[in-house]
Amino acid sequence: MSSIFFEQWFPPETSRITDATYSCNSQSIFVGFDDGSVAILASSTLTLRCRISSTAYLPNNPNARVHPLVIAAHPHEADQFALGLSDGGVCVLEPLESEGKWGTSPPLENGAGPSGTAPGAASTDDQAQR
């Protein structure tokens, strides 16, 4: 049996991949790293759509080294996925409603430019309970 090589992608040298999975529509690949960040790649070209810092979904605790161990794609929502974290927590991520999907800019309203807020993820996980 032979395999066919399609595309190749290398993570940043400072972090290692802990897990990765395809979205339910196979258009994206969600990749978790040991530094806590998550990358969303276009599956057809392996180009980076966006990278989510751990500070977007975890409370700021410099002493904790929490990172995704497992990534699970939602079975029906292509841009939603869950992270199983090294501290036992679970965090569900999806793009901000104004963005619509990963790696797109929010639409301009009344000719105004982007707001001063940094792009990030809306988390359905209640971090205060952790």
Outline the structure in words.
By secondary structure, the chain is an all-beta fold. Residues 106-130 have low confidence and may be disordered. It has a domain at 15-96. It is built from no helices and eight strands. It is 0% helix and 32% strand. The protein has a four-stranded antiparallel sheet, with no helix packed on it. Strands 5-6-7-8 form a four-stranded antiparallel sheet, with no helix packed on it. It comes from Artemisia annua. Residues 97-130 are annotated as: Disordered.
Indicate the topology.
Blueprint lengths: L16 E6 L5 E6 L4 E5 L5 E5 L15 E6 L7 E5 L4 E6 L25 E3 L7
Antiparallel strand pairs: 1-2, 2-3, 3-4, 5-6, 6-7, 7-8
Gist?
By secondary structure, this protein is an all-beta fold.
Order of helices and strands: EEEEEEEE
Radius of gyration: 16 Å
Q: What portion of the residues fall into strands of 2 or more residues? A: 25-35%
Which oligomerization state do the chains in this entry correspond to? single chain
Mean pLDDT: 78
Main β-sheet, spatial strand arrangement: 1-2-3-4
**Strand tally, please?**
8
InterPro entries: Topless_fam (IPR027728), WD40_repeat_dom_sf (IPR036322)
Biased composition (Low complexity): 111-124
Region (Disordered): 97-130
Protein name: CTLH LisH motif, WD40/YVTN repeat-like-containing domain, Topless family
Question: How would you describe this structure in keywords?
Answer:
single chain; 130 residues; mainly beta; four-stranded antiparallel beta sheet; 8 strands; 32% strand; globular; Topless_fam; CTLH LisH motif, WD40/YVTN repeat-like-containing domain, Topless family
